[in-house]
User: What shape does this take?
Amino acid sequence: MASPLRPQDVDLSTTLADCHLGNPVMTASCCAAAGRELHQFFDVADLGAVVTKSIMRDPRSGRPTPRMAETPSGMLNSIGLQGPGIDAFLAKDLPWLLQHDARPIVSIAGSSLGEYAELARRVGNTPGVAAVEVNISCPNVENRGLVFACDPLQASRVLAVVRRETPRGIPVFAKLSPDVTSIVEIADSVMQAGADGVVMINTLLGLAVDLDRMRPLLGGVTGGLSGPAVRPVAVRAVWQVAEAMPDVPIIGVGGVRTGRDALELIAAGATAVQVGTAIFNDPRAPVRVVRELREELAARGLAKVSEAVGLAHRGITIETTEESST
Ligand SMILES: Cc1cc2nc3c(=O)[nH]c(=O)nc-3n(C[C@H](O)[C@H](O)[C@H](O)COP(=O)(O)O)c2cc1C
Assistant: This one.
């Protein structure tokens, strides 16, 4: 009988569009700001990539407080894209990541096509950027405040502009919202507009009421729901897009806490995964997920993470050789 596969022998390297990564685990946008906060807990170079908090053109103070509320198996946030603006980001945050050998995927967010164009041009032309992630869950100030991500035409316009302004060798990933009737339709429109892949999912719109004060708990009234509560929604979105468009590179995100959670998204069709909310109660979660993913793959005799991508669509039974650690 063949000897069991050892976790250290599993090949976690992966390729997403033109982006080659040592492993498929990344931080999710925001949950680690620009990565610096995490460095006291682990070496940011040990992650496949660090996705930075969405950066806008101008500095922003975000939405009114309170901005966070705990919910069953999740949390609501209404941070509102607080940030230093692109000048400070390019001057301080990005150089720090590059000096620490991280592979930065820079998330950009705009309130008009012109802003997205400017951000893509400036970020894409900065040496060392591994890819651009386009957060389209923002209201379009030029079009009645409609959220770009909720309309296939608006979403495709943003991706066409960003793709046009970003140098060819830098992949552009569209981050999609689950708050739509058909996420496949939105994925199709952004891919046709030139995106190199999709990231799913951003938070779901939610609201919590403070029953003592009889008003919404968050200062911004509504907030984005994240954490384990949203994982089945993320798995569903990844599954649906992978089923409809098997060749589209997908990054799965939503409620990942363990290597097992990561493997679920990968089996549903994701080539890479991001860890977000879990970082708030375990800052080492992303590197732990790398280690646990290795163990989960080894236990199933999968020598390469690429062999696991989309496996659940093929319905192949895999026996687990060891008790998994998670
Ligand atoms: C506090 C907080 C802030 C976030 N800010 C951003 C952001 O700036 N840009 C973005 O694309 N997604 C943002 N997200 C969404 C996450 O990147 C992720 O898509 C979502 O939280 C689901 O993953 P999780 O359950 O692992 O957190 C934010 C999430 C949280 C919890």
User: Anything to note?
Assistant: The pocket of flavin mononucleotide is lined by residues 28-31, 53-54, 77, 79, 81, 107, 135, 175, 202-203, 224, 226-227, 230, 253-256, 275-277 (CB under 6 Å).
